[in-house]
Amino acid sequence: MSVQIKTVDIAPRRQTFGHVARRLGGDKPASRYQEATYDIQATANFHYKPYWEPEFWTYDTRKTAVVMDDWYKPIDPRQYYYATYNIARANMNQAVDRNFSFVEERGLLVKISPEARAALERGLLPLRHLHWGGNMNMTEMCQRGYGTAITAPCIFSAADQLGMAQIISRIGLVLDSQSGTSLDAAKKTWLEDPAWQEVRRLIEDSFVERDWFHLYVAQTLGVNGVLLDFIYKFAEPAFADAGLSVAMLTEFMQDWRAEESRWSDSVVKVVAAESGHNKTLVSQWAAHWIARAVEAVKPLSEALLGDGGKAAIAAGEAARLRAVALGLAI
Amino acid sequence: MTVKKLGLRQRYEHMTRGLDWETTYQKMDDVFPYDSFEGIKIKDWSAWEDPFRLTMDTYWKFQAEKERKLYAVLDAFAQNNGQTNLSDGRYVNVVKLFLTGISPEEYQAHRGFAFTGRHLRGAGARVAAQMQSLDELRHLQTQVHTISHYNKFFDGIGEFPHMHDRVWYLSVPKSFFDDARSAGPFEFMIAIGFAFEYLLTNLLFVPFMSGAAYNGDMSTVTFGFSAQSDESRHMTLGIEVIKFLLEQHPDNLPIVQKWVDKWFWRGHRLLGLVAMMMDYMLPKKVMSWKEAWDIYFVEAGGSLFQDLERYGLKMPKYADIATEEAEHISHQNWAVFYQYTHAAAFHTWMPDKEHLDWLSAKYPNTFDKYYRPRWELWAEMEKEGKRFYNMALPQLCQTCQIPMAYTEPGDPATICFRATQFQGETYHFCSDGCKDIFDGEPEKYVQAWMPVQQIFQGNCGGPTVLDVLAWYNLNAGADNMDYTGSPDEKIWKEWHPDADAARKAV
Questions:
Q1: B496 and A CB contact within 8 Å
Q2: Dist CA B417 CA A14 (whole Å)
Q3: Which of 442-471 (B) contact A at CB < 8 A?
Q4: Which of A216, B6, B111, B481 could lock onto B11 through a cystine, CB 3.0 to 4.6 A?
Q5: What is the 3-state secondary structure (H, E, C) of B435-464?
Q6: Which residues does chain B have within 8 Å of residue A41's beta carbon, measured at their own beta carbons?
Q7: Domain extent listing, chain A
């Protein structure tokens, strides 16, 4: 027997919006993701050319060289809209707070060896600036990209990059007893340490990339795929006795990378699969930025691990395999 | 050794602007190519006061909590058929106007704040703009989800993005936001951040949400309450932007003044749709447009500009004309939509006696003299089976794109026409305010996609009204025309047979 509350049933006259029904192939119940995403961005009859980019309309498919019949093909497998995105991140962040409390209460980062501290200061803390660069790029793709299916997750990703820059900053504040000195030092390292300069050059070069999908490939396969993975996956031995604490404090990044790459990989895969033209371009871009990222991170690999750049090469190899699995010719 | 701990403010600065650096491998002017052409001079971005010190973790936490609560209410509203508890079926037309006219602009604001969130050179300002970009996406998406339930039962809602790009009156809000989006980053911040989100927000957001509260629309008003803390953050950003620009350099004042004048007037024209909604479309009235204008613009706006006077900023040009128009604008707009009801995706009606008396009381200087006789005549014509439709396409103002139906300042019996010659063509305007805006940037406004001209040029599906409605995806006979006799009315009466019988008995 079950409890049955009687409710008034009123038959709806339609299930969803017209534009959503056309995409579903009929008037069927649609998900909140679909209703919040499909065809939201304006596509026609714009009024004025932007002063700052008069060669294009505000929303214009010509802002990238890849061509899609429909920019609502590369949808988000996570089906994020604002609510589900924020709830997911708030949940992940509860673990961050627990982990910081755990490490701070036990003084785990206070007790580490000088070698580990030096490696964190040189190898991890400057990464907050690279995340900040990622934030700039994802925001740019949100504003210049085409179609809500891809631009909405871009602003989520921009927020993620900012959030990760702030987690790294919190690690610095734990290391320097909340004085901020380690963050000032990390900025100096980012700006001056030869081990970081090719990484900085790479991200600065990406800031001026005008083709937004080219930028998407550079950021997701090059920066996230090689540079971030190098630090978070390959450089752990450098952090020596702080390794476990760092792994705890950067759990967010591990979870984020696994989750976001489901989206970013699937977008690359769908766009490349659209045509030979797209595949050629995306493959060239991926090959270029992965190779650049490997070269850029080699000095860091040597500086942190003394490995002659082997870990950098391994990170690049993993990124290439990933790209090949997405259907790219590399 | 004692370590000096950071204060909260310094800690926040490390978390945001401390992340930024002066690029050296690429020139800063190439990384930020759009922040100089407007002529705004910034001496020192570090003087920017972060308007709300939110780190991402706090943002996620607050916003997730708000979303959980909001969606619980939306689910309950749908499960319990909350749409049957509205004050009247007519109310849904407010929701239609909101989703077709306002929500797509929330989306435009989302993309626009992503633009300034990337391209303002100051990192503090960028972070604030990015959070607003996220918030604006939230507003679009939650509005779609809120109104999705109404779409299941009522007409005129289901094609909102398609209509937004095409329908004649929706080009009023669309061109407003296209204007802001095609401007530089500083003008965008003044247009949307200051003029729209600070100066005029109480005349846009609040009337819709209060209207929902008064008319039993529990889901929309819950959205409103949920968005309130976002809106107050946006207001703080808007006021910070204008103060910052004015403090940075005296040369910024004339530029900012010109933008404030422009965006005030453009906002005033856009708000005419809200005025009409408040005075005519809400079955249960909150207050009249005139009352709202007096409270939120004359009083609150007045003291705001008193506060800004120390920077040399003056009240927007034509503020006095706008205040005079507050006695007329809702009536003149409703007259337009009544005449063109066959081409609108919401329903119209002539006010009943009780409503007419309310308008007479709220507008003692104008309603009985200029508008009540016309409404009574039109109601009489309806009774005689001669309901008045205007089948001629109206002339549109080149700037605001509203049909030329507004009257001369000081002379409510004469239609106001203004014109400008530019490159051998004549352009027409509804007001001095709109003409001045055109004259300030004629190369921009000649580009406008003018719905009526586009119909005449054959770009809108064909020569007949039905051709154009089909091109709009407007379901003729259901989405348009009077409420009386509409499928909306039919379904409402099915839910409320007793109310209908009671009305007939009277």
A1: no
A2: 44
A3: 444-445, 447-449, 454
A4: B6
A5: HHHHHHCHHHHCCCCCHHHHHHCCCCCCCC
A6: 107, 111, 161
A7: 82-325
* Type of residue found at A171: I
What CATH number is given for B55-505 in this structure?
1.10.620.20
What is the pLDDT tens value at each position of chain B, 506 positions in all?
456 888 888 899 999 999 999 999 999 999 999 999 999 999 999 999 888 889 999 999 999 999 999 999 999 999 999 999 999 999 999 999 999 999 999 999 999 999 999 999 999 999 999 999 999 999 999 999 999 999 999 999 999 999 999 999 999 999 999 999 999 999 999 999 999 988 888 898 888 999 999 999 999 999 999 999 999 999 999 999 999 999 999 999 999 999 999 999 999 999 999 999 999 999 999 999 999 999 999 999 999 999 999 999 999 999 999 999 999 999 999 999 999 999 999 999 999 999 999 999 999 999 999 999 999 999 999 999 999 999 999 999 999 999 999 999 999 999 999 999 999 999 999 999 999 999 999 999 999 999 999 999 999 999 999 999 999 999 999 999 999 999 999 999 999 997 766 665 55
Instruction: Give the Cα separation of B355 and B358 in Å (integer).
Output: 5
For tokens 């910024």, the residue is: B252
Total-model pTM? 0.97
Which fold is adopted by the domain A82-325? Ribonucleotide Reductase, subunit A (1.10.620)
CA atoms of A261 and B107, how far apart (whole Å): 25
Which of helix, strand or coil describes residue A176?
coil
Q: Cα B483 from chain centroid? A: 24
> Are the Cβ atoms of B80 and A7 closer than 8 angstroms?
yes
- Interface check for B152 against chain A (CB to CB < 8 A): the answer is yes
HSE-CB for A124 with a 13 A CA cutoff: 34
Residues B240 and B49: beta-carbon distance below 8 Å = yes
- What does the H/E/C string look like for A167-234? HHHHHHHHHCCCCCHHHHHHHHHHHHCHHHHHHHHHHHHHHCCCCHHHHHHHHHHHHHHHHHHHHHHH
Beta bridge partners of B482: B348
Nearest to B317 by CA among B199, B184, B436: B436
Backbone angles phi, psi at B418, to 5 degrees: -130, 155
The partner residue sitting opposite A207, judged by closest CB among B23, B104, B449, is B23
Residue among B23, B111, B448 whose CB faces A143 most closely: B111
